[in-house]
Specification:
mainly alpha
Length: 432
């Protein structure tokens, strides 16, 4: 599926982002300041600048040497050495953009990751497979949606499906492969057949076929089901309208039973996926006025107001908050918008499709999500952020506010947040 089709499929608002309002003016001021500063630079300052550049180049060379060593260690006989190498690669790939460095080494790295994924079921093997699946996801993210990323995905797709569907494999390995299959397919799948196959495999994990004795017990749901459902819902956001209609007609009713799961994360994911399905139905102009939707609303209302003492207090609070938003969207179409800030930019999460996409990448990248939003061309294309901003030290310094201004802003935000929470608490008191 070409990137243009994938971008066009996403819902309205998927490209909505914002930057500083006076970015062009600030940029021109910064450039004029830099040019005047460079004209008046003394020989000592120029020498210091050259020395700093030399030190930076040396640090980059050392970092590349360490990366090469970690890649070589993936073929080491010691399982512990391989796991340490995979951990190091995971941390590096999630915190830096290394597409140029990895471009000519992708085949070697892909082959090494394949060997790690093929390891047996002995002691510690599950952890190695799980780490290999995560590194594979990050490698595909670094390569992007072009031929290189597609090549990585196609070469390891059969192995990912094999581990995911192997009931004898480690649960952590299957969970990692579920995430890798969904993310790599989202990033690099070029054919609709690949997309449909991955959707089917993931659906078979979180919604296994009925055995005639009722649905699977809620207590059996765990992290594997959560990862499979998360990946499945992510792939829904890039499905063509014809397949979305197929899902709406036949498969979305498998989601409401998951609302009864004992796993709070799965309950929340199921609720968010149901909201996503209703959102996609609007995009393809389908009506979900099914006889079961009224019972669904009743379920959502129960989860939005649940106060059972046998559930943890934090779980109850989080569940009520999210299911209130879900119920509000299904009943009135109102979405609770969120703002994500990174560097000098920010973007809006103003739809369930956009939120699911952001949460999926955040799950994989962790704290490195902000760096990749600023510098990774793939993520900037997906979220409609445009080319990466090129800012030097002077621009960053010019963009910073004073401590006094920051204090005033934080004080105003604290007062507004306190007022908003007070209103909500008053409403809760009235309801109770």
């Amino acid at each position: 599926m070409p990137r243009s089709r994938r971008a066009a499929r996403r819902g309205p608002g998927i490209g909505r982002a914002c930057s500083p309002p006076s970015e062009e003016e600030a940029g021109s001021e910064v450039l004029s300041h830099c040019s005047s500063a460079s004209e008046g630079a003394s020989p000592a300052e120029e020498g210091a600048g050259n020395e700093a550049a030399g030190e930076q180049g040396q640090e980059e060379e050392e970092a590349e040497d360490r990366l090469k060593e970690h890649m070589d260690n993936l073929l080491d006989k010691s399982a512990k050495t391989r796991q340490v190498a995979l951990q190091s690669l995971r941390l590096t790939f999630s915190s830096k953009t290394l597409s140029e460095f990895l471009l000519e080494r992708r085949l070697t790295l892909t082959d090494s990751l394949e060997k790690c994924l093929k390891k047996g079921l002995g002691a510690g093997k599950g952890e190695e497979q799980a780490l290999a699946g995560t590194v594979l996801t990050l490698l595909c993210l670094q390569m992007g949606s072009g031929p290189e990323g597609e090549e990585v995905f196609r070469s390891l797709k059969p192995l990912l499906i094999s581990v995911l569907t192997d009931s004898m494999a480690s649960p952590s390995a299957r969970q990692s492969c579920a995430t890798a299959l969904g993310m790599c397919c989202y990033i690099a799948a070029a054919d609709l057949e690949d997309l449909v196959l991955c959707l089917s495999c993931l659906e078979g994990v979180f919604s296994p076929p009925s055995t005639g004795e009722g649905d699977s017990a809620p207590t059996q749901h765990g992290p594997l089901h959560c990862s499979a459902l998360q990946s499945w819902s992510l792939l829904l956001t890039i499905c063509p309208p014809s397949h979305i209609k197929n899902v709406l007609d036949n498969r979305w009713l498998k989601l409401p039973p998951l609302l009864s799961s004992s796993n709070v994360v799965l309950r929340i994911l199921a609720g968010e996926t149901i909201a996503l399905v209703f959102e996609l139905a609007q995009y393809v102009e389908e009506d979900l006025c099914h006889q079961d939707t009224e019972f669904l609303r009743v379920q959502l209302k129960v989860l939005a107001t649940e106060s059972n003492k046998y559930r943890a207090k934090t779980d109850r609070r989080k569940q009520r908050s999210i299911f209130r938003d879900i119920l509000r969207f299904i009943e009135s179409g109102e979405y609770q918008e969120e703002t994500v800030r990174f560097g000098l930019e920010c973007m809006y999460l103003d739809s369930w499709a956009r939120q699911r996409t952001y949460q999926a990448f955040k799950e994989v990248l962790g704290s490195g999500i902000r760096h990749h939003l600023q510098n990774n061309e793939l993520l900037r294309e997906i979220f409609g952020l445009g080319p990466p901003l090129v800012l030097d030290a002077a621009a960053l310094k010019a963009s910073k506010v004073s401590r006094f201004e920051k204090h005033l802003y934080n004080s105003a935000a604290f007062k507004a947040r306190t007022k908003a929470r007070s209103r909500v608490r008053d409403k809760r008191a009235d309801v109770l």
